[in-house]
Amino acid sequence: MLLITCPFCGPRPELEFGYAGEAHVVRAQDPREVSDLQWTEYLYQRSNVRGVHAERWRHAHGCAQFFNALRDTTTDHFVATYRIGEPRPDAAVEAGR
Amino acid sequence: MAETMARLHPLAAVKTVADAHLLAQGPMGRFSLRLAANAAPAPLGALGLSLPLAPCRAAQSETAAALWLGPGEWLLLTAPERASAVEAALRAELAGQAFSLVEISHRQTGLSLSGPRAAQRLNAGCPLDLDLASFPVGMCTRTVFAKAEIVLWRTGVEAFHIEVWRSFVPYLWELLVIVGAETS
């Protein structure tokens, strides 16, 4: 079974986790200030990366916390996982190649 | 005249008889405590222990146990007759800070599983690595057993305490009985 490393609990079976969409999608501070086009992009446009993708996961049947992960969408390999609020660890991507 | 409804154990209607290693536990006082981890006073007099701050670890005193379930989330277990006293004492002790203390005594039921094949039996439905090196005595976590979510706590080398939501108890019980027959 695929193991995912929760930043709080360590490596745990995939069954315990839930996928929660692309990470680092920033909501406008004041939605009234942005144009309809920008708001549409925030709501619906996703990068759909082929390769290393930053995404949110939730350890739903564990510590219940959300965290971010870098996953290669072509191989399903988890390059790195990191806590919400931490910067995207792109150094780990380079090291993983 | 109004009749008082009697509380039935969730296994009251289940006829399957388990082996000596699988036991259903009686009533217990349970609380879900949410509190900023850095605000946890140490130790908590109401429980006679310090809240475990390390991930997936349980702390136990003579009268209570606190299980780390997530950052800032603990499951507290006490004897049923002490539950209301513990709640009052905890509320007094934590007064002045942001916390949530919810009584969940009747939401879930405890099962205890022991014996030399306890870990193997659990692994029939739980994908965690239950080797003593990676899941030592005193470790606890929320996880899954087949389709049910459980809280698993290793209380001894060959002993586990399982907390499971009331409506899942017959399901979990029957599965553990079947697996017990297959692994014995």
Shape of chain B: globular
* Tally of contiguous helical segments of chain B: 3
* Poorly predicted spans of chain B: none
Question: Proportion of β residues of chain A?
Answer: 35-45%
The beta-strand count of chain A equals 6
Widest sheet: strand ordering of chain A? 3-4-5-6
CATH topology of chain A: Folate-binding fold
Descriptive notes:
The complex is a heterodimer of chains A (97) and B (184). Chain A has one domain: 2-Layer Sandwich (Folate-binding fold), CATH 3.30.2270.10. Chain A is built from two helices and six strands; from the N terminus they run βββαβββα. Chain A has helices at 36-44, 90-96; strands at 3-6, 10-13, 18-22, 52-58, 66-72, 77-83. A four-stranded antiparallel β-sheet of chain A has the order 3-4-5-6. A two-stranded antiparallel sheet of chain A has the order 1-2. In chain A, a hairpin with a 3-residue loop joins strand 1 and strand 2. The longest helix of chain A has 9 residues, at 36-44. Chain A is globular and about 45 Å long. The mean pLDDT of chain A is 93. By secondary structure, chain B is an alpha+beta fold. Chain B has one domain (22-183): Gyrase A, domain 2 (2-Layer Sandwich). In chain B, the strands form two sheets. In chain B, strands 1-7-10-9-8 form a five-stranded antiparallel β-sheet. In chain B, strands 3-4-5-2-6 form a five-stranded antiparallel β-sheet, with helices on one face. Chain A binds chain B through residues 1, 8-10, 12-13, 15-16, 61-65, and chain B through 55-56, 69-71, 73, 127-128, 141-144, 149.
Task: List the defining traits of the structure above.
heterodimer; A: 97 residues; alpha+beta; Folate-binding fold; 4-stranded antiparallel sheet; two-stranded antiparallel ribbon; 16% helix; B: 184 residues; Gyrase A, domain 2; 5-stranded antiparallel sheet; globular
